[in-house]
Design brief:
This protein is an alpha/beta fold. 38% of the residues lie in helices and 23% in strands. The protein has nine helices and eight strands. It has an eight-stranded mixed β-sheet with strand order 3-2-1-4-5-8-6-7. A hairpin with a 4-residue loop joins strand 6 (213-224) and strand 7 (229-233).
């Protein structure tokens, strides 16, 4: 019997999001929280990239000439805005249904995104390289976080960066992101997140450092119900984002 190759894919997670695929672009549908979350994460990504490359974030096509991977892209809620900002975007997702929805929406919007129904492992094996890897709201859904982070880091060019967004594994996160968001307010379908699969910042940073990625920024994100919007925060107890850069080989050898 041939042993199966290691995989980061949790098929139950893929099936869960595939079943909801047609609702990706409905701002009042099952993915309403992501639509609400999009402005703060888009601004964080755009501004950090522009600062790093000495560009004006308010100019036309500020991300032109940069190759971006949106891994676990879902229906393309991040891929399309990145392409609108001028980036060359590859949107990858293990769900063929999600990718089909993303392609249809991009075609309807006249946006060029290279959507692929594939995995981080397959892309890394093919030798794909990117200036920026967006790893947003994905790590809490994979079957092997260490392997997934290693494959994502492998695709970041030297001096390139990876953005990671996820949910902390804390009692506060359980109360707000699972009990409140899924069971009480029903912002998300019940079962969207499993507490044991949530990832603490220290665990994520260990995985990044082990793959020649240096942490250069970290921030919490919280929902302000009065303003009905997400904002950056120093509190990383629930939602948080981490930005890491790929060290050059000489720097990595000293790490």
């Amino acid at each position: 019997m041939v042993n199966a190759a290691p995989t980061t894919i949790d098929q139950a997670e893929v099936d869960r999001f595939s079943a909801l695929a047609e609702q990706w672009w409905d701002p009042a549908g099952k993915f309403r929280p992501l639509h609400k979350f999009n402005p703060v994460r888009l601004t964080y990504i755009r501004d950090n990239i522009c600062k790093r490359h000495g560009r004006d974030p308010n100019r036309e096509n500020p991300l032109s000439g940069l190759r971006i991977l949106d891994i676990g892209c879902g229906g393309g809620l991040l891929s399309e805005p990145m392409a609108r900002l001028g980036a060359d975007v590859v949107g990858a997702d293990a769900s063929e249904t999600n990718i089909e929805v993303a392609r249809i929406h991009a075609n309807q919007s006249g946006i060029a995104v290279d959507y692929r129904a594939t995995t981080a492992e397959a892309l890394a094996e093919a030798g794909e390289q990117f200036d920026i890897v967006l790893n947003m709201e994905v790590v809490e859904h994979v079957s092997d976080v260490s392997l997934f982070m290693a494959k994502c880091a492998q695709m970041v060019k030297p001096d390139g960066v990876m953005f990671v967004a996820t949910i902390n594994r804390t009692p506060k996160a359980y109360a707000l992101a699972i009990v409140a968001a899924e069971r009480v307010l029903r912002w998300l379908p019940r079962g969207t997140h499993q507490y044991e699969k949530l990832v603490r910042p220290a665990e994520l940073e260990t995985a990044l450092n082990a793959n020649s990625m240096k942490i250069i920024d970290r921030t919490g994100v919280f929902f302000n119900p009065l303003a009905d919007q997400w904002r950056l925060s120093r509190d990383m107890d629930v939602n948080y984002m981490i930005l890491a850069e790929k060290m050059a080989s000489s720097d990595s050898s000293r790490h």
